[in-house]
Amino acid sequence: MDKKHGSKLRKIVQICWGVLTNAYLKGFTAGGSTIYTGPLKHFCVPGMNCYSCPGALGACPIGALQAVLNSRHRKFPFYVLGFLMTIGLFLGRFVCGWLCLFGLIQELLYMIPTPKLKMPERLDKVLRYLKYVMLIVMVVGLPLLYRNDYGSSKPFFCEFVCPVGTLEGGIPLVLMNDQLRPALGGLFIFKMSVLAVCILASIFIYRPFCKYLCPLGAFYALFQKVSLVKLDVDKSACVSCGACARKCAMNVDPSKTPNSTECIRCGECIKSCPKNALRFTCAGKKVGTT
Amino acid sequence: MKQNNVSIVLWTAALVIALGMAVFGYISGEAQTVFTKAVKICMECIGLG
Questions:
Q1: Which of A41, A166, A226 is opposite residue B46, by nearest beta carbon?
Q2: A21 occurs within a structural domain
Q3: Using one digit for the tens of pLDDT, what is the confidence trace for A246-269?
Q4: Do A158 and B18 touch (CB under 8 A)?
Q5: Residues A174 and A274 in one domain
Q6: Same domain, A190 and A246
């Protein structure tokens, strides 16, 4: 990848992907009374993208996973897990850095010029495990344990945590559709509070939702060391100057752990390296020019 | 070199399993479950319960 234009390219890809996967314009013009109901909704998008967003053309993988787990028939989610594993095996957390609209929104918020907060290392380390708790407890565990009288369950993560659904689905639909407004209550206020905390935190901390809460990032992190897209360090060129670690907003030291579970493959470290010792690889082959 | 070949075999096996799971799930009607959920406004997702 071209060092100089890497960040710009990533922003363009993020924006284009966000627009492309939310291109159902009728959802925005029909007064919030309809969302896309075409055949593409059989398929998941790789990143977090609420399927109730008026423009969404695909299904959210975390929502889809819960929908299958919550069904009365207690199916094993072969389809969604198979899809997520395939994406993980090819891209790992590259999805987080390049193909997630909510990630882009957090990055844009972080660009607001304010003093930035550096989390104490120990607290940061502990909080990073929260996203695995979200995946195991809220996405998989509770839907499996809880059953109502009809034998189905609730999408616990979507209902009680996910700020993506509130931002991309809840706010536009409630603003556009009068009929939904009488249903607003405590849950909406709670979810709005979660969203407000995420938005505020994003101004001061780089991608807090991705670092601490995102169950999808946690899932892709499991594939980080085996995915086709990787970060590689040329040990003979690296002078251990620490420039890459200082640049990394996800608090990774790419020269030591280039395939850390926290790396979102943004490529900022590649740009910062004075010795061109870092590069993206795909199936072991160097990608682009540095 | 040998370790590299083992990694390639394991990665390919994992991909075959993943794709197999996705295809099996699709055929067995899971995609329809996803579709049914995704085409309706999800009240839980948007915070309306």
A1: A166
A2: yes
A3: 999 999 999 999 999 999 999 999
A4: no
A5: no
A6: no
